[in-house]
Amino acid sequence: MSRAPLGPASTPGPVEAELRAKRDSGRKLLVPYLTGGLGDWTEHVRAVVAAGADAVEVGIPFSDPAMDGPVIQQASERALRSGATPASVLDGVRGLDVGVPIAAMTYYNVVFHMGDERFAGEAADAGIGAMILPDVPMEEQGPWRSAADGAGIETVLLAGPVTPDDRLARVCEQSRGYVYGVNLMGITGERAALGEQGAVLARRMKALTDKPVLMGFGVSGPDQAVAVSADSDGAIVGTAIVRRILEGETPEQIYEFVASLRAALDASAT
User: Fold this and answer.
1) Per-residue confidence of the chain (270 residues) as pLDDT tens digits?
2) Structural domains of the chain in order of their starting residue, each with its CATH number
3) Which residue, 65, 92, 119, 129, has fewest beta-carbon neighbours within 10 Å?
């Protein structure tokens, strides 16, 4: 499913347009993350969509996931040991047809090995609408952005609590699809408490852009999903879901957890 090339940065692509429309209807956005190749992962994707996900991030496993905490590292290692490859994950995405945008998250080594244009083209053909490359600074994304824009893939940029104002403005301007706000410094993982720095970052980003602003890192359950969405447009939830999959939870159990997140966000938006 190839896509038309993206227009100017000020023109929303399909992923951004869909998330904007849902947000503008009064909905708080929910974006679960799952590790591609981990167990019956495509059924887990279907489960989170059925439970009310507005988009899904699929991780393409890499052997040295530097920004990820122990849970997602373990998930990546298990997926790789079971034979997961970038090609097999893209093939799995190709067969999903779940009706919501799919974003892929991986490290640039994976892209570089295949080549920017080939990777972007194959990702778009598989149905990937957006891409997150957390280890590539904004200033060094030129070759990838050129290939991604040409393939119609929206590149999502990340910002953290210590991102300076001038750089934050550029991140918000150049990000496509949505802007990914990192609630706290450090690696991914569940946290008992998130503090105020994520809320401050969300308010800073909302003052700079009308693009959807989603907050991730550390969201462990419904209460925290509601908390991080109070000043943003929604929540990204990864480790809390991946941990449950590692522990053997079925798609039905993952559905119940994500449905609890959806219900809490819907209640907070009324």
Assistant:
1) 557 888 777 789 999 999 999 999 999 999 999 999 999 999 999 999 999 999 999 999 988 766 777 899 999 999 999 999 999 999 999 999 899 999 999 999 999 999 999 999 999 999 999 999 999 999 999 999 999 999 999 999 999 999 999 999 999 999 999 999 997 654 444 444 456 788 899 999 999 999 999 999 889 899 999 999 999 999 999 999 999 999 999 999 999 999 999 999 999 987
2) 29-265 (3.20.20.70)
3) 92
- 41 sits in the region (left: phi over 0; alpha: psi -120 to 50; else beta) called alpha
The answer to whether residue 24 is catalytic is: no
Residue 223 annotated as catalytic: no
Rounded-to-integer distance, Cα 152 and Cα 247, Å: 36
Spatial distance between the Cα atoms of 262 and 53, rounded to a whole number of angstroms:
8
Residues 16, 54, 57, 190: which is the catalytic one? 57
> Looking at 16, 18, 54, 68, which residue is catalytic?
68
Give the distance from CA 96 to its chain's centroid. 17
